[in-house]
Specification:
The protein is of the alpha+beta class. The chain has eight helices and four strands; from the N terminus they run βαβααααααββα.
Length: 170
């Protein structure tokens, strides 16, 4: 029996739609706290040339204990990332008090590429085509086209799963 429900968020850190989804994620976090395990999953899109590097940088932030704060700070600067590219990744790390040199090294040595590739492959396998896409309780919710009503749908599924869990059912 678990005491939390997993919400996988397939995200791309140069994606304006993912930036807009942050309010929903914050609201979900506020409502469920630790009962909802929100996991950032990477799905860099080819149309955004810095997205793959951004995903690697986010994994470095996870290593340094600041995964979500880093992702959120980066999503607030999607336009700047598009214009300036990788220096923005290191700037954001520095602003959050992370080891910026280590970010630089991680982007050069590619130590996080396998995680990003694995996420992307899994996303493709389950039918993710755009970002953000949510997966909760085996259900895929595509936020790339419209995010209207998505948070309510996630809450509905989470409530159902948590209620079943509380009754000791699967």
């Amino acid at each position: 029996m678990t005491d939390s429900v997993i919400l996988d968020v397939w995200c791309e850190l140069q994606c304006p739609d993912c930036h807009r989804a942050l309010d929903d994620l914050r609201a979900l976090r506020a409502r469920y706290g630790d009962r909802l395990d929100i996991r950032l999953r990477h799905f860099p899109l080819e149309k955004h040339k810095h997205a793959f590097a951004a995903a690697q940088a986010a994994e470095e932030a996870v290593e340094q204990g600041q995964g979500w704060p880093y992702a959120e700070a980066l999503l607030a600067r999607t336009a700047e990332l598009g214009e300036r590219g990788e220096p923005v990744l290191v700037d954001v790390a520095r602003e959050l008090g992370l080891d910026a040199e280590e970010f630089d090294t991680a982007l050069i040595d590619g130590r996080h590429i396998l995680i990003v590739d694995a996420d992307q492959a899994e996303g493709k396998a389950i039918g993710v085509t755009g970002t953000p896409t949510y997966v909760i309780g085996g259900e895929r919710l595509d936020g790339g086209k419209s995010q209207d009503g998505l948070r309510a749908r996630v809450e509905e599924i989470a409530d159902r799963l948590l209620a079943a869990d509380a009754h000791g059912q699967d």
